[in-house]
Amino acid sequence: MNDWRVPGFTSTGSKRPESLFGTPARMVRASGCRVWDEDGREYVDYVMALGAVALGYGHPEVNRAAEAAIAAGVVGPLPPVAEEELAEALGEQIPWLEQVRFLKTGAEAVAAAVRLARVATGRDEVLGCGYHGWLDWCQGATEGVPAAVRGLFGELPFNDVAGSREMIRARAPRLAAVVVEPVIVSEPTREWLQLLRAETERAGAILIFDEIKTAFRLAIGGAVARYDLKPAPDLVVLGKALANGFPLAVVGGRADLMAGASRTWISSTLATEAVALAAARATLTVFARDGVCDHLHRVGTRLLHGLHEVQRSHASVVTAVAGIAEMCFLHYATEELSRAAAQRAAQRGLLFKRTAYNFVSLAHDEGTVDRTLDMLHESLRGI
Ligand SMILES: Cc1ncc(COP(=O)(O)O)c(C=O)c1O
Question: Is the CB–ligand 1 distance for residue 133 below 6 Å?
């Protein structure tokens, strides 16, 4: 492995062979919910590019939009018209995005939201809940991150009303922002969401929803839409499924907070290259027109029910079903069993992640889900 020029095969921690299936370790092609490896073997996939694809790989409408953007030159000396058009289309679907800025990765967009919160409040400390990317501001104990930076960040407990209240109040005078992933394995309680809204307002801190996995999945507008959170968070971050696999992320929200962008420095040379903007515009059109989130919920619910049966039938190997219809996984009795189950499923042509999360897409239909459940039963039998 040390001879490879990309150590561990991949720049993404969660795509390393040891995190996934062992074999197949790499792929050459993907289409819909199917993937082909170097030997031409076909797999049904639930990794879905770690949730970056919700319409299916290589969706024809998205591809056509991307191809037109390539033909039109991709980048140029001036801001593209497509940037404002996409911002307007997003605002129509997600009204709490009064203004937006585009970036390339989720990590950048959450970091931008935190920067804007620091600009608005003049404060430094941040509480986070969930995964927000690899950049310095949100690392609790990562080597290479200065202690002074780590000291500004604390972890808020998910769905813990009393614990969250206490942490926010204790830091109130120094707290710039509370950043949360609204779904972490389980759904948030209404009480916790309302507490976050009320306590950040009370503390004068900015509430940021990191909807990188949940927007364009639970609803186009993510958890805020699904759980009808009012008033909406001050800032929201979108990414992943937003452009169906093309690299694009969004930070957006209250116009007065977004105006802070002109007082700080948030800038990226290729942030508005036209291919990802066009892909996102086409993705949004398909989502709104074809009721994609309803499909994800329906098919995901079928999968989730089936996983409960899988768990009951193989209770000594599978200890629990985790997650929600749109993003789920199984808990295994041991790490060895989890590895063995993932490998045996892959040998049968199924790429089913053994940790958070498996994602259904528009390309997964009921028949695919039923065959998936059969394959899972077969893989677990005799483990
Ligand atoms: C909730 C959340 N925030 C931020 C990120 C970071 O996004 P990226 O890997 O595009 O930088 C991720 C990626 O998994 C995520 O799931």
Answer: yes
